[in-house]
Each structure stands twice: as C-alpha cells, then as structure tokens.
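Section 3.1: Structural characterization of target chains.
Under the original work plan, the team committed to producing a structural model for every single-chain target entering the pipeline before any wet-lab resources were allocated. The record below documents one such target. The sequence was received from the expression subgroup and is listed exactly as submitted; it comprises 538 residues.
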Amino acid sequence: MASSTIARASTLMAVGTTASRVLGFVKAMVLATAIGVTASVGADSFAVGNMLPNSVYMVLIGGVLSAVLVPQIVQAMAGHDGGSAYVNKLVTIAMVFLLAITALAMALAPFLVRLYAMAWSPEQLALAVGFAYWCLPQIFFYGLFNILGEVLNAKKVFGPSSWAPVLNNIVAISGLAVYIALFGADPDGNRGLDDWSSGQIALLAGSATLGVIAQSIILSLAWRKAGIRYRPDFLWRGVGFGTLGKIAGWSLATVIVMQLGGIVTTNVASTASGKGASVAALQYAWLIFMLPYSILAFSIGTAYFTRLAEHARNNKPEDMRADVSSALRVIGLVMTGSAAIVFVTAPFIALVLMDGAKPADIAALAVVIMMYILSLTPYGMLFVIQRTYFAFNDTRTPFFFTVLQILLFVGGSLLVLAFSPVELVAAMLALSFTFATMIQVAVGMFFLRKKIGGIDGKRVFVSHLKFGIAVIPTVIAGYFMLQFSAAYIDTDNLAVAIIESIIYAAILGSIYFAVLWLMRSEEITELVSQVKGKLTRR
C-alpha cells in the first residue's frame, strides 16, 4: 500500500513536471532565438538579471522553506486543529518578510548585479541592472509559490505544485513571441549593448516576471480546492517559531554558503562573456540537467520525503532505512540511465536549443551539457540524503558537507580561472561541479549511515554497480550512432535533430534497461512487475 501511494504521487508529479519542463525547454529555445546563448552579451546580461531573484530568495528564505516546512507542518497536523493555526501564522509571517526582502533587493539592484559580474564593463552592468529591476519582484512570488506548495505537499496534495509552472512557461513563451515579433530574432547574439531599448528590456524581463506571478495565483486557487482556508494571523508567539528558527538557522547558513560559492563561480563564468560559453550557457546546460532530475528524481524523492518525515515523527527506524534504501536505488536507476542518454545526445540537444546559431557556439554548449550531466546520479542521491536529515529536523549536518562541496567547487573554479582557455571556462566549471558533488555525496552517505544505523549499503552499492555496468554498452552504442549520423545524416537540420534525439533516446534507454534485465537487477524486475500488474488490472 505504501509503495503504491508513493508510485501514484510520484507519477502525478512526474507528469506535471514533464509538461512544465517540456514547455520550459520550448521557452529556452524561443529565448535563444530571441537573444542567443553563447558569446552573447545580451543573453549573459539577462541571465544575471533573471538569476538574482532566485539567488536572493534562496539566501533569505527559500532554503529554509525546503528544509524545515514539511516536517514542521507534518508535526503540527497532529494537533487538534489539523495544523491550520500554524499554517496561517507561517504564511502571514512569510509574506511580510517576502515583501520587505523584495523591496530591499530592488533598492540594492546595482550592487547585487556588480557582485555577480565584477569583470563586466559599466555598459553591460547597466543592461543587467535594467533586467534586474523588472525581474526582482519575482522574489515575493517565488516565496509565495513555494510556501503554498510546501503546505500542499505536507498534506499529501502533490499535483498542483507540479502543474502550476506550466502556466508560468505559457505566459513567458507568449511574451517572448511578442518580443520576436516586435524586435526581431537574434540567434547568434549579435545585438550589442547599445542596441537595447527600455521597451525591449521591459518586455523580455517583464514577461518572465508575469509568468512567476501567474503560477503563484493558480496555486492559491489549488489551496481552496484542497479545502485549505487561509486567514491572516499576526499573533506569531506560542506556535513554536523559536524551534523553527533554530532549525532554519543551519539551513540558512547552508544556502548562504552556496550563494557565496555561486558568486565566485558566476564571476569566473562572466569573464568569458562575449567570447565563448559563459553565464547563459551554464544556465542552459543546467536547464537540460534539471529535466531528468525534476521529472524523475524530484518527483520520486518528494513523495518519499513526506513518508520519511512521518517515520521520524513516529520513531520507526526500520521503515526509515527501508525507504532510504529504496529511494537511493530507484533514483539511481533512472538518473544513471538518463545521464547516459543526455551525454550521448548532447550535440542534438544543443542544436535544438540554438537552431540558427554558429556551429562552434552550438558545439560549445554541447560540451557544457556533457560535463554537467556527469553529476546527475550523485545529485539525485544527494536529494535523498539531504531530505532524510531534514526529516529529523537536522539541518546542521547537511551544512557541513555542503560547505565541503562549495569549497571544492570554488577551488576548482579558481583553477579554471587561472589555467583554462576562455572558450572552455563554462565546461570546466561544470566538470568542477561534478567532482565536488561526488565528494559531497560520499561524505553525506558516510554520516547518514551512522545517523540511522545503516543505509542497506551493500544492496545500494550492488545496484549502482549494475547501473554503471549497463551504461558502458549504452554509451558505446551511442558513440557509433553519432558516427553514423555524422557520416550519413544532415545533423544541422533542426527537424532531423529533434527526430534523432527522440529515436536515439528510445534506443539507448532500451539498451540500458535490457542490460539491467539480463543482469537481473531487482529494481528493473520490480518495475516490470508493477507495470504488468497495472496492465493486468486494466
């Protein structure tokens, strides 16, 4: 019963997230057509301006919400009112702080932009600041969206949070379409710093903000449908916010450390702006990275997280260990296969994203995608590790192994700055992130094993070893498929690239799962049994 509940919740989230991510991919394609990606000063300026809301929000409240909200609400739901008083007070205080934070961030916009792009000229900084003024109001609505979504997740209503971003992407794509119609397309990023008008800036960045507003509004309607009624409550004492503050403190410290590292790495990436793959290319590669992560790992892991919080509350260590082991293996299965597929098809993905751009610029983005995707499996495992600690209201331990990851990443970034050719800066930064994440996961699993009395380590290791073995023939087959395409197929054609990506992904996925089936992987056997069972019932 528990497994079927997780499966249903994960499937609902995965479908919604898939729709959202597909539209997000389309939005990225349209944005690349509008302002370019690689060697585009306009794209890099917009990337920094549109990145600031996420950065500021995550530093001041976002990491706190994701770390502590679900466990705290699960505990509050055991009260006589089902947690409604706690939720009302929590939402009220969050909205007050979000308004204050948004106003402060807008006042500090020039300083914040310079903090992330110290190497840029005054003209490029001014363009990025212009984008930032239109994008920074997103802070309030990101916060509102996430707190509404976390309350729904705690109450095991998983669908709306996954589907609301669909509306966000539709609004943003519409804005980009209007932008291209009015100001023309620029896939090579040739538009100079003097070619940007206030109207262009307002339309490009304003439509992005309007999309974030739309997804927040639609999620508030989902609250009413779920039977949740919000009433503002400014009496914040006596509901345990002191405990929440202590828990949130370590989470806040974690996010601050991550953002400090982000400042360093973004500044390193910005040195390549206008010369090669830079800030915008890293964001596009991260978008591709997040496709399988959000659709599969996040959807599966979020459903597990609520159960882990319940196990911690009810003091059920055996159930906790079983679910942690299951989550690590299932997420490892899908992340490893996804990484192999994306690694092989990266040249086609880059072409689809940057259709009409120079071949050298497309190739540069493909390399960045390949370097990032190597960390997909450990990043998925990291989600499980962190959420297990959060289920125990332990945000202190994740802080320390996150600090280790950031130190390694920053150290690698500085080495890239010192020794890497400018055209490889973004790719080397992505590779540095991969290395640092692998070390972080190894340390995190070591301490997690001690905390919960074991993580079924041998079983998890054997499963991941099988996943790794299955990747070898998958990648080899992909290599020969790429050679075939280069010799006999017009790989520069957008329609052909899309078709090849789909066909190759299906073939490579089939090879991966077939090899695991031959090795009698228990995860594959269980998956096939579940599918057969559903088909039989139907």
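The two ends are 18 Å apart (CA to CA).
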